Structures are given as C-alpha cells and as structure tokens.
Amino acid sequence: MTQSDFIPIIVMYALLIPSAAVFMYCKSKSMWLLATVFKGLSTWIIIGGALVLAMGSQLNLFTVLIIAGLAMGLAGDVALSLPAHGLRSGMLFFALGHVCAVIAMFFALGTVTFIPLPIAVALFVLLMFVQRKLGVSPPDNLRIPVIAYTAIISCMLALALVMPFYIFPNGLILLFAGLVFTVSDLALAINSFPKQSSSDDKGSNAAKSTVFSLSCYFLGQSLFAVSVFFFG
Q: Each residue of 61-104: pLDDT tens digit?
C-alpha cells in the first residue's frame, strides 16, 4: 500500500466537501434547483470514488454490493426531492441500500456468526426508545415503514459494530460508516417527524440539525465508498 493508492480518496473528498457545502447553502436559501443539482453531484462524486477505488482491485461481491447500496442512496436522494410519496420512496431506497451493506458485511466476515443478532435486537429497542424520547412522531401511515426501517438499520449497525473484532483494523472503516449513517438517519427522523413545539427558535434548531444530519450522511456514504479500498 503506497501513498499513490490514497490519491483517489483524497480527490474524492476534495470534490465532495465543496459540493456538499454548496448543496447545504442552496438548501438553506431555498434555492431548490441548485440544491438538487449539487446534492446529486455530491452523491455521484461518492459513487465515482467507489468505482475508481474498485478499479484498483479484483471485483468481488463486497464491492458490487457497496456500490449498489450507494446507488440506492442516490435513488433515495432523488425520491426525497419529489412531492407526495417522496419520503416513503426515499425510505424504501435507503432501506435497500442498508440491506446491500448488511449482505456485503456478511460476505466480508467470511464466516457464519449469530453474534450480531442479539446486538441488532438491543439496538432496535434502543433506537425506538431514543426516537420516542426525542419526540419523533411519524404520521399513522408511516409508522410501520419507520419501524421496519429502524429494524433494518439496526441490523446494519450491529454488523458494523462487530466488524473490527473479526477484521482489524480494516473493520474500523465500516464501524465508523455505520455509526455516522445511523446518527444521520436519527437526525433526519427528528427533522422529518418533529414533535409539536411552540419554541421561537424551532426553525433555527431545525436548520442546524439538518446541516448536522446531511454532514453525517455524506460522511457515512463516503466511508462506505472508501471501504471498497480496504475490502476490494
């Protein structure tokens, strides 16, 4: 592993950081067309980074599934920008992306283990409790999808948590990716399904939470892309 091997990663972040920053600025100013363009561009930069990293190694199931998961994230981004059922569709695509990550991590482990199962159950209970405490209150027609999505991301996070114990130190990249993506989803849930509040600074807090959520989202997706370098 030489310094030149890290050039694609450096280039990816050099392009991603300003693109994501412009997207969040445009979003804060309600410049929806530019925001959509730069959000899509940011996601394409991440996918492009994964593809370039995949070119330097032999193609395997892990790489294919991670890139497929990133593509599902792009589809989710597009869906979230649509009216009507955009949120439901976005949740579906992101859930499929997490399923791809779960299968990819099982492949990377190279062994059958049931240790992540009780961890996933505990994480599901914890995430549901945290959502309730933070005032996440989805409408009735989205309660079941939110519960299902929480179950899927709990499985993804459970596998991410055990990866360093089976594959060290490379498993750490998946641990951090799973953690920050989960934090992003939790912040997104707070923004999408907030409890009723009459606070005057509600809008300001929501804006800060959105920036935090999006920053974690792009970081999580980019770390999954970088994992191709270590597991490809």
A: 999 999 999 999 999 988 887 665 678 888 999 999 999 999 99
3-class DSSP string for the chain:
CCHHHHHHHHHHHHHHHHHHHHHHHHHHCCCHHHHHHHHHHHHHHHHHHHHHHHHCCCCCHHHHHHHHHHHHHHHHHHHHCCCCCHHHHHHHHHHHHHHHHHHHHHHHHCCCCCCHHHHHHHHHHHHHHHHHHCCCCCCHHHHHHHHHHHHHHHHHHHHHHHHHHHCCCCHHHHHHHHHHHHHHHHHHHHHHCCCCCCCCCHHHHHHHHHHHHHHHHHHHHHHHHHHHHHHC
pTM of the complete model? 0.91
Rounded to 5°, angle at Cα 158 from 52 and 63: 20
Residue pLDDT, tens place only, 188-213: 888 888 776 544 445 555 666 788 99
